[in-house]
Fold:
Amino acid sequence: MAEPDKRQIGDGSDNYGEAAKQMAKAAKEAAEKAKAEAPAPVIIEEHHELPELVHVDPLPTKKAAAKKKPAGPNMKELKNAFVKNYSRLYQTDDDHESGEFYDAVDKFDEMSANNAQFTATVQKFNKYMGDLISSDREAAAFVMALDDLEKAKTPEMVPTVQQLCFA
Structure:
């Protein structure tokens, strides 16, 4: 049998360990050469400063819708004033002699025809009372009651010392 050729080619440095060293050396040299040829990186210092804080008022927000008080007079107060005026007109039989009575009836008729808020107040009062205003006496008492409540809301004018005459 023939024996395999045991001769080695080269200078005896043809093994895997030596080959790895040579590759690492070549890679290192290539990196150094590329580094020498590349321009140096430019380092720029950046300062990020926050701008001064400015106070800004918050936008107004809508408040929850509050329950609105219904327009017009308080029905309990109006009823009390109505009963007082109606009783006075009924007891004194003042409904045919007084100019106040006829003026109140005329005002009721005019306002009912021309003023939507007045008509709404009459309807609200009718519902509250459970009865309709059906006579001139009731109409006059209603208008007088509204006038009484309006007078009660308006503060009385008290003269100042300068307005008084001490003569």
